[in-house]
Amino acid sequence: MTRLSALVLALSLGPHLLAAPALACDSAGPNTHVGVVTAVDRARSTLTLRDAETGGALTFVARPDLLRGIAPNDAVSVTFAAEGKTLRATSVEKGGR
Question: Max CA-CA distance within the chain?
């Protein structure tokens, strides 16, 4: 591949690759995180995801009905209410936003 071809490819793909993480949580709306589920603990009613924007782990307390059908590696969008240091999920949607 010539240098010119590599430069054209990098310039054409760059904005698309860089834009994806920025869209994750900032544009998802207030009190909303988007990411990939890393763990579901049904006994403790918790859901942990890898935040798409920061890459950090976030754990939410969620009602059992919100966890139904959710599994590790699912892409999700979680709307939550902060209660002190606890993040309480109010909705969990597969597929993110």
Answer: 56
DSSP code per residue over 51-68: ETTT--EEEEE--HHHHT
| pTM of the entire predicted model | 0.71
Q: Which residue's structure tokens are 């892409």?
A: 75
The length of the chain is 97
Interatomic CA distance for residues 66 and 93, integer angstroms: 9
Q: Considering only the top CATH level, what class is 3-94?
A: mainly beta
The strand pairing partners of 36, in sequence order, are 50, 75
Distance CA(37)–CA(95), nearest Å, equals 11
pLDDT, tens only, 52-89:
999 999 999 999 999 999 999 999 999 999 999 999 99
Which tokens in the block code for residue 9?
A: 């490819």
User: What residues does 87 pair with on adjacent strands?
Assistant: 82
CA nearest neighbour of 92 among 55, 50, 64: 64
